[in-house]
Each structure stands twice: as structure tokens, then as C-alpha cells.
Recover the amino acids of this structure.
């Protein structure tokens, strides 16, 4: 649908209106509006989830982002690169547990080139029938630059080797002012958007994410949502949007904040985590602003099951992944672990019918 037609049809929020809502609207009013919009987009009382595993193939990363507790230098005793056999074992276990997707992401390893990724994809696909949702835009750009390839050339090679879809990792906040502080070595916002646009042009579907609660201002959140919405107008390639809150534990950003504030020196870095109210406000605004993205995920991984249930009344229609394995958020000290059965029960207890989906939101099974 053309942008002008969409504006006419649903009275699209402007950036100014979105900012006003975010700053001034009553939380319950905002939640009610987001819930109404979700019901218009999803007429059945269904909440979906996917069974998958988050495989972090390496924690070695040259970016050293200040908000991240996962990365390690190459010579760090905790640094690792999974062997292919280890990775294959994880994939096989995922399939045995009913998984339909693996999410493969890792750090920017200085010794891995395009051939590593092509061979890895070929070998996974030759052994297993599973969707590979992998390699965030920073990884794609790093591989492209190392190989003297364009983003489109790199994506084409990876797609031909077996890459099916791309996660929205590495977006954080799509404001270069913010990125310069929290991740100065990471790609700028324009390159993140470029990877997603090229992937969509090649027929690949992707997700979009937003990490909030670090140093951004409300205006930065609106800029992020507007950039995602604008690209979706052009390509229609985003399947879902996932906002999640910065987890400060064990991160350089939290340590530096504590050092700069004498009265907080003895306090826990969790003081800097976004509150439940802030999470719900961002979630509801995301649902209202992103009128052209059908699915909004609740983040039980960072918020826990109870708040994720509440999120289903603040615009979310999807419970995300069972996430058989997760390492990045866990490295901050936040580790909510749930089973498929836990998710099904949580959805039912919230008043909805659970349904397992695949990567592309096709329903596989109802519960």
C-alpha cells in the first residue's frame, strides 16, 4: 500500500503527535489505544510464539559496545568460537524439541570471512530442514567490508548458501548521536537500514528491534520508529517489531554511570534499568506508530513472564520465542528461563489462545 493511501486510511500518527503521546498520554489510555489497534489488526483472540534456539556462535567481538556484557577479546579466557559439531548438536536438539527456526548471531570475529559463513550455512542446510534466521546487520556489514563486497553482493551469497531471514539485532537506537556514545565502533543507523532494505529487495524477510533505556531521549525513540516505518512503507519486508529494554548488569555503560555519580557509587547498576511502566509505554507507542508492521513482540526475555502477559493488553500480539538457549541478555545477569509449556500457560492465563507459528507467522499448531 502506498504511504499516502495508508495515511488517508488510518490517520497515521505524525512524529509530533507520537512524541506528545509518548510524553504526556496517560499510560492506561495509551495501552487502551494500542490494544484497540491490535484488535483491528488481529481479529482473532490468538497470541503466537515460535519454538527456536538462539545460537551465539562466538562472543569474540571487535566492536566492544559499551552497553553489552557479552563480548570478549580474542585472548580472553572466556572467549569462544563454537565448533561446527557443537553448533550442529544444538540445531539437532532444537529440532528434536519441535523447533522450526534457529537464530544465529555472534560477535564480529576478526578471523572469520565470507567463506566461513557460506560454508556454515551450506553445512547446516545439508544436514537439517530448519529456517536459518541469522546474522544481524553489523555482522553482514563486517563480512561485506572484509571481503570487499557490497551489502547486496554479500546478502546474495549468504541467501544462496541457505540464509532464510535476518534478525533486527544491532539497531539499538537508530540515532547516530546515541550510537556514538553507546557503540562508537558499530555501524551507523544508515547502514543498518541499508542492510534491511537490500534484504527486502532480495525477497528476504526480517525483523526490527529497538533497545531503549540507555541514554536516548524521547525524540530519539520517535526517530527510530519513524525510520523503521518509512522503510516498511518502501519495502514491506519487516515481519515484526521487538522493543526491549537495556539491561545494565556487567556493562561498561552502567559502570561509568556509577563512577560519575558519587551518591550512587554504592548502589546497584539495576537502578539504570527501564521500569515496567516505561517498557509498557514504549511498547504501546510502537504498536500505534508502526501501523504498517502487523506483529509486535512482547519481550519476556528481558521483562519476565508476568509483564509479558500485561504487554498483551498494551499492543503485543506475539510472545516471541521459547528461546531454548539465550546468552547475550543472560550475560548481564538477567536470566528468565521458560519452557514451551510455560509460554502456553501464560498466554492462556492472560485470556488468549496460544498458537505456535513459524518464522513468517504461519500458524503451525493451536493449543
Amino acid at each position: 500500500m502506498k504511504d499516502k493511501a495508508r495515511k488517508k486510511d488510518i490517520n497515521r500518527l505524525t512524529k509530533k503527535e507520537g512524541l506528545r503521546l509518548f510524553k504526556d498520554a496517560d499510560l492506561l489510555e495509551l495501552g487502551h489505544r494500542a490494544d484497540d489497534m491490535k484488535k483491528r489488526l488481529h481479529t482473532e483472540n490468538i497470541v503466537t510464539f515460535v519454538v527456536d534456539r538462539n545460537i551465539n556462535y562466538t562472543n569474540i567481538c571487535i566492536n566492544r559496545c559499551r552497553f553489552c556484557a557479552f563480548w570478549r577479546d580474542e585472548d580472553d579466557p572466556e572467549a569462544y568460537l563454537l565448533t561446527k559439531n557443537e553448533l550442529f548438536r544444538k540445531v539437532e536438539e532444537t529440532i528434536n524439541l519441535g523447533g522450526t527456526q534457529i537464530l544465529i548471531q555472534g560477535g564480529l570475529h576478526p578471523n572469520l570471512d565470507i567463506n566461513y559463513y557460506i560454508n556454515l550455512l551450506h553445512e547446516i542446510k545439508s544436514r537439517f530442514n530448519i529456517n536459518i534466521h541469522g546474522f544481524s546487520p553489523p555482522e553482514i556489514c563486517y563480512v561485506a567490508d572484509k571481503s570487499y563486497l557490497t551489502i547486496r553482493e554479500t546478502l546474495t551469497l549468504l541467501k544462496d548458501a541457505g540464509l532464510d531471514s535476518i534478525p533486527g539485532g544491532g539497531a539499538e537506537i537508530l540515532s547516530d548521536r546515541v550510537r556514538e556514545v553507546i557503540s562508537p565502533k558499530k555501524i551507523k543507523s544508515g547502514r543498518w537500514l541499508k542492510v534491511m532494505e537490500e534484504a527486502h529487495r532480495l525477497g528476504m524477510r526480517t525483523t526490527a528491534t529497538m533497545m531503549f533505556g540507555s541514554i536516548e531521549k524521547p525524540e530519539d525513540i520517535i526517530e527510530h520508529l519513524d525510520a523503521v516505518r518509512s522503510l516498511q512503507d518502501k519495502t514491506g519486508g519487516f515481519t515484526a517489531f521487538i522493543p526491549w529494554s537495556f539491561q545494565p548488569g556487567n556493562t561498561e555503560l552502567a559502570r561509568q554511570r556509577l563512577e560519575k555519580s558519587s551518591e550512587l557509587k554504592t548502589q546497584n547498576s539495576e537502578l539504570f534499568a527501564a521500569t515496567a511502566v516505561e517498557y509498557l509505554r514504549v511498547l504501546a507507542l510502537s504498536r500505534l506508530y508502526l501501523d504498517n508492521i502487523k506483529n509486535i513482540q512482547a519481550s519476556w526475555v528481558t521483562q519476565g513472564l508476568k509483564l509479558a502477559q500485561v504487554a498483551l493488553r498494551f499492543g503485543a500480539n506475539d510472545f516471541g520465542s521459547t528461546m531454548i538457549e539465550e546468552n547475550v541478555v543472560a550475560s548481564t545477569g538477567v536470566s528468565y528461563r521458560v519452557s514451551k509449556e510455560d509460554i502456553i500457560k501464560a498466554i492462556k492465563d492472560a485470556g488468549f489462545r496460544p498458537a505456535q507459528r513459524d518464522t513468517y507467522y504461519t500458524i503451525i499448531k493451536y493449543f
The radius of gyration is 20 Å.
